[in-house]
Amino acid sequence: MEWGIAGITLGLGGIGILSLYSAAAQGIPASTPPIYVKQAIFLVAGTALAALVAAVDYRRWLEYAWILLGAAGVLLVGVLVLGKVTSGSQRWISVGPVSFQPSELCKLVMILALARFFQMHPSPRGHYGIREILFPLVLIVSFALLIVAEPDLGTAILLVAISVSMLLLAGLRLGSFLKLSLLALVALPIVWHGLADYQRNRIRIFLDPQQDPLGAGYHITQSKIAVGSGGLLGKGFLQGTQSQLRFLPEHHTDFAFSVWAEEWGFVGALVLVLLFFALLVYGLRVAYRAGDSSGRLLALGVVAFFFWPVVINIGMTVGLVPVVGVALPFISYGGSSLITSLMAVGLLVNVHMRRFMF
Amino acid sequence: MEFVPSDEQDLGAIWKRRFVWASVAISLAFVVLVARLWQLQILEGETFERLSDKNRIRLLRIPFIRGLIFDRNGQILADNRPFFNLMAVPVEITDPGAMIQRLGQGVQMDVQAVSASLREAKRRAPFRPVMLKEGLKWEEVAWVETNRLDLPGTWVEVEPRRSYPYGKTGAHLLGYVGEITEDLLRNWRGRGYRVGDRIGKCGVERSLEPYLRGRDGGLQVEVDAQGRQLAILQEVAFEPGADIVLTLDMSLQQEAEEALGDRAGAIVAGDPRTGEILALVSRPSFDPNQFSEGITPEAWRALMEDPHRPLTNRALTGQYPPGSTFKIITAVAGLEEGVITKDTALLCTGHYTLGNRDYRCWKEEGHGFMRLREAIVQSCDVYFYQVGQMVGVDRLAKYSKGFGLGQPTGFDSDQEKPGLVPTSGWKKKRFGEPWHQGETLSLAIGQGFNLVTPLQQFVVISAVANGGFIVVPQVVKRIQGVDGRVLARFEPQYQGKAPASAATLKLLREALRGVVHDPRGTGQRARVQGVDVAGKTGTAQVVRMPEKVKGKHSALPHELQDHAWFVCFAPVEEPRIAVSVIVEHAGHGGSEAAPVAQRVLQAFFRRADQREQDGNLKEAAGIQGGVGHSGHHLGSGRDRDT
Q1: Whole-complex ipTM
Q2: Is residue A358, in this structure, part of any structural domain at all?
Q3: Coil, strand or helix: which one is B371?
Q4: Which of A211, A265, A269 minimises the CB distance to B192?
Q5: Residue range of the domain that includes A17
Q6: Is residue A31 situated within a structural domain?
Q7: Residues 6+ apart with CB under 8 A from B597
Q8: Which of A18, A68, A146, B573 is deepest in the core (most CB within 10 A)?
Q9: Cα(B461)–Cα(B516) distance, rounded to whole angstroms?
Q10: What are the pLDDT digits (tens) for B107-125?
């Protein structure tokens, strides 16, 4: 166990709670206990789960990969069925007072499953063609479709991005990758055709938030103003012009970064961005030094797991990427996201701890 | 940093390359993010600071313009005109009470209620503009504009609202536009509708709502503390709705409406070959403009409670007994089933006895021996009692359905009523009683359980005219974008063929011509100078007259008087127009409905003559100008006309 990763995680978690404290200072969203307290509870619970993830040898986890993936699939279908009943978007499964989003967990389990697949199918020359990875492809597509149907396009995009990153890192040939991309382009309209009307509408709104033209990119403008007006040193803790962000309905989730950047300025934003960068570098190092190739792929999967949402979410708040419902790990409010992120860190630590064990 | 490769044989050059790629990709992405942050926060920081502190950003809606509706000749039937709403952004109004008080000096409104709702809006969604009052009068607009410096946070929004230049004429067909209901808002979630949106409520406005509707645009405007506009930060243009070109001929529609006058009833006129509707009248009518302006509760109640039901589209939803017009179908059934030929002679003594009941003919003294043609021309009841009896109820039902009765025509499935084609099985189910022979007699002359709509009657008479094709009436010719690009074109549609041979239909057309042109015909009042007209009268009893009491219907109160029917087409040889007319509680079809149809036909052929003359003139001009292809000239002239 290294202190570095603990420091990075704690730093990110702390920034998340600080920023939520500020976001909720105006009492929006109203919640008891306040959302930053809830987030702190999730942080503690998540750390405990992360420890559990780290405690069991990742090679053992890999053996369970298929069972875990099956369970995740069942949960996704369950959510879909429940969602149909309530005729809206249903991403949550509730057990008593605790509810969580299986789609979040799904990303993590998919990393395990892919690592397991390549562990079981080593390639003597380190390369794979489409035919050899047909099975994981089918898995990825079916899970992505299940998540799209919820509909949670943001998570589905992440799942695909993470999985494809892993396929490439595991040795999928570039030519095969291009062929697959082409195929996906052709297949998209067919999938679109198969969706229910309300699902299509949701995706339409998702792809084109300006469908609410009154907004006319309002969220982006507001987010850019919030970030930009932070200047070098920011407006100070709790001093952000909340008036500018109060009507961003997701200012505590999707636009949490804007709140932080407004109050802490370029310096604060840089600290946060560098913490994420440090996390990714740590992940790469763990992968580099991993004891075997399955551990290596596992660690690389976790790197992708963090890389994509960070880039997409921050890119969105600064107007580089279209508005997509993707949470910023550790910073956006949300138990499922935070706990899964911590478990992912646990997986990294796991691989790191067992780098000398064969 | 010291890397200790622990898995020597695995970590070859390949893995190293992958790590390099991953590191480069990650680093690149982060460099871009940091550069962007630098740009926003350091380079443009001051600009954004100004935007966040000193000024405000206002979101303005740019309402879309609803598609126009034209008739076949390019007359505008549904237009838009500006409507002025008083808007406010709650957060910019420090003291809602005082502001509304001030506004109350120049704008008529309920000061108490409006300030309360503004306060509420300020609490819930302070940045979302709210409407303080819709439909400002001119002097109110002027007052707000002159005093705008004292009214920060408010402005006048211009919104296009529907207007119908022809008012009540064609109102049922066009429909009207009103505010979306909460139920629809729930059902249409995800389609981009918002509270307060205005949608088509009936008629074409409703059925073509997806086309007519455009998309609002939006403006992000930077304003200073006084509400003065400084800059436009972001603009999204509105998307106008698509225009609709109908098959309707508004001048014919006007003529038809006038022909019916103050009487309640309906007219459907159209092309029997294609089912294109030229006029569709339902009277009494309403003024769709009053819905555009926001109908008052009193006006709404008055419309709803009016005993003459002006909102009802009688042409589609009025279900009436067909009366003697049904003899057309009885005749087809008789011929096709072989129970009669055109030469079968049946005796009419003025009444027909079945069991212990007497069924009368409308002609007390009887018609004597009748053959089919004469029976139709003189509309002999007794002849058709006998044919009906021989055919039987269920075979009559088969032919009724074959002509499209008992089901919606497919014109507007949301609104249309199906009418009723009774069968013995239907009666058993409905009343638990067996079918009586006598009921077949009533059925055969259109006085039984059978019910039809004026639109269905149009389909029936069109089928007779066009050689048996069951048309699906259509009123939309094409849909076109504002750029004139055609988005959809509507081709004629048919729901199969009537169960009648060409010979039967020919015979029928000849007989129906006799109804209008024979000296004894019942429909002589539909004659049109120079045109062969074929038609059938019908008089649908509202109450059965007591036995032996001779029909002095005029003595009955109005609502118990018979409905007058007339269905027709012309010219007989090459039919170009078919008309179905019902005049409620008017009396005899021959005397009341036929003259109405006559006016419609006259107007149609007057226009057709004119068109032909225009065409000939153009043709002549074309030849003189040395341009050949005179035939095409006529065609192009017609094209422009349609």
Answers
A1: 0.91
A2: no
A3: coil
A4: A211
A5: 3-353
A6: yes
A7: B267, B526, B535, B566, B567, B568, B579, B581
A8: A146
A9: 15
A10: 888 888 888 888 888 777 6
